[in-house]
Write a structure and sequence with these properties.
The chain is an alpha+beta fold and 115 residues long. It contains 2 helices and 7 strands; from the N terminus they run αβββββββα. The radius of gyration is 34 Å and the shape is rod-shaped. This is GRF-type domain-containing protein.
Length: 115
């Protein structure tokens, strides 16, 4: 990380560096940011100078990523079912083709006996 992106100053005091923090809200799990170094929350009272800057670009929430994976899994399951049906149909056709080949071989042998 370069020095310009590894620190930032609060508006309430130019000498108070903003620490690099990580968000743990549902919307921003793991996303890094700089915030006021004097941030203090006591009950409903919150003190800080409102200095805030994201380090990371926005990215999908963990919940969104999990739902996306579930959707992908469902799509893959559906494709797998289609492939299983196709394989089953091909195996049935193969068995019928083998039976036809056997019938033709039997007919050919019968014709050879006649000659």
């Amino acid at each position: 990380m370069s020095s310009s992106s590894s620190s930032s100053s609060c508006y309430c005091s130019s000498s108070a560096p903003s620490p690099l923090k990580m968000a743990w809200t549902d919307e921003n799990v793991g996303r890094r940011f700089f915030g006021c170094s004097k941030y203090l929350k006591k009950g409903d009272f919150v003190f800080h100078c409102k200095h805030f800057r994201w380090v990371d670009k926005s990215f999908p929430t963990l919940r969104d990523r999990v739902w996306s994976m579930y959707a992908e899994i469902d799509a893959l399951k559906e494709k797998n079912e289609e492939f299983e049906i196709t394989v089953s149909n091909l195996m049935k056709k193969s068995k019928k083709d083998e039976e036809l080949i056997l019938q033709w071989k039997t007919k050919a042998q019968d014709l050879e006996k006649e000659v």
